[in-house]
Amino acid sequence: MIRPNEGTETKANEPQQSTRKSIFLNLSLFQFLSFVRRGIFYTFMINYLFNLMQTVTYTALLGTLNMMASALGQNLLWGRISDRYKFKTRLIVAGESIAAVSYLAVFLVHRSLLDSHAGFAAGVSLIIGLSFLEFFWSMSDVGWASLLTDMTTSKTRGGIVGVLNFIASLGRMIGIIFAGLLYNDGEGFRQGTIFYIVIVMLAASTLLMWITSRSTEKPVGRTEEKAAKVASAKTSASYDGKTYKWFLASLIMLIVGAACVSQVFLLFIKLPEGLNASDAEMSLILTTWTLGGMLASLLCGWLADRIGKVKVILVGSVLAFLTPLLYGSASSIPTMALVYGFNGISFWTIQTVGFALAGDLIPEDRRGRLFSRYNTVMALSWGPAGLLVGGPLADIQTKSLGLSPYTAYVNAFFASSIIVTLGAILFAAKVARPKAKTA
After folding, report:
1. Contact between residue 319 and residue 349 where contact means Cβ atoms under 8 Å apart
2. Does 25-215 match 240-439 in CATH topology?
3. Mean of the pLDDT values across residues 334-346?
4. Is the pLDDT of residue 33 over 80?
5. How far is CA 226 from each of CA 122, 346, 362, rounded to the nearest angstrom?
6. Dihedral pair phi/psi, residue 220, rounded to 5°
7. pLDDT tens figures, 212-250
8. Three-class secondary structure of residue 238 per DSSP
9. N or C: which end of the chain has fewer CB within 10 A?
10. Hey, is 73 helix, strand or coil?
């Protein structure tokens, strides 16, 4: 039996469904372009900086300063602006536009220093310029996280985030391939080719999100505004701040533990007393990590929506614990590739389902500020984890204790597993158990 208003409601919902599909398509294209761009620009940036500056320490500052600038921008400004003024797509548009102009300015300064034969200063200008750029670009991260959470529900969020992360991995692989063609022993950066390509892609991303903004940020009527305020009040009332803080604390340990040996691993597989991997073999091993992440992105979100996000995060944590322990016993390139592929599965499982779980825990009216904290935690994998934990741990053993690099690196892998274990225990005790009691 059809109720009197049922047909009307169905017709009214059709444009909304169409709009959501259009927004999801734009988000997918934006995600793809973003990671193609990052793959093109950052794959060889470390190599280029080292050629200019001839120091590993200063080169490693790029990821750390970028992370600090992003964290400051998101937590001090952009998250608060997003929550107060409900700007999401506008933040993305502004962030992408500022980034495009900043990339051009960074290149011009860098080029002028190269022309003055000041190679070290040119490297410093890139590090400072890209960190300054990241401060403003991080408004795009805040807007993206808030908008994506608005467009999904708790029952579908895991699967949708997984699909978008799969698209991101695919885009990154394509970007890395193009980076290999464009780098040309640094000429791609010196002549500006890579900068110009990235600027064009940023312009395309800006256009996409400007189109999206016309669908997502329209004036609402009084009835809809009242309903939105009621819904927001309900989600805020049910918000458990203590659980979210424990979630972030456990996530810090999981991410630091998993990412702190990323740079050490690259050195480990090249050791003559170990695998002594060639460049081609190293590329194969690294590719399996990305492929594992792509597989995980597709499956773990779907699985999380069915058996629960907490359980899937714990599975990812177990893999993050096991894989570093197996690095030292991998006696062949195919074996190491397989193990590292499972490590990619673990990392992307935690990242994908972690975002979905954060979306469940965060109330609508505080998404900007609280997702800023989540993004800051995830950004620890950019470089700080290796610079502050993995690198010093390996150096102390080789330089102060006199251990061989092989032994020192294997011990660093053990430390990685221990840190991940502590994070998993904290997550199980403070996040998994409370959610199980309230379920």
Report:
1. yes
2. yes
3. 96
4. yes
5. 54, 42, 20
6. -110, 155
7. 877 665 544 444 444 444 444 444 445 668 999 999 999
8. coil
9. N
10. helix
Structural domain boundaries in the chain: 25-215, 240-439
- Nearest-angstrom CA–CA distance, 198 and 319: 35
* Amino acid symbol at 71: A
CATH class of domain segment(s) 25-215? mainly alpha
The structure tokens listed for 31 are 């995600």
3-class DSSP state of 331: coil
Measured CA to CA, the distance from residue 370 to residue 366 in angstroms comes to 6
DSSP assignment of 249-303 equals HHHHHHHHHHHTTHHHHHHHTT-TTTT---HHHHHHHHHHHHHHHHHHHHHHHHH
Tell whether the model's pLDDT for residue 8 goes beyond 60. Answer: no
Q: Going by C-beta distance under 8 Å and a sequence separation of 6 or more, which residues neighbour residue 58?
A: 49, 123, 124, 127
Superfamily of chain region 240-439 = MFS general substrate transporter like domains (1.20.1250.20)
C-alpha closest to that of 344 among 320, 373, 308: 320
The secondary element (H helix, E strand) that includes residue 152 is none
| Per-residue tokens: 37 | 């761009």
Cα 78 to Cα 74, 143, 216, 404: the distances in Å are: 5, 8, 18, 46
The CA distance from 45 to 165, in Å, is: 23
User: Nearest CA to 165 among 320, 312, 344?
Assistant: 344
Candidates 299, 28, 379, 310; CA nearest to 154 is: 310
Cβ contact 291:344 at 8 Å: yes
Cα 261 from Cα 92, distance rounded (Å): 32
Distance from C-alpha of 76 to C-alpha of 369, rounded to nearest angstrom? 9
Could you say which DSSP state residue 155 is in? T
For 116, which DSSP code?
Answer: T
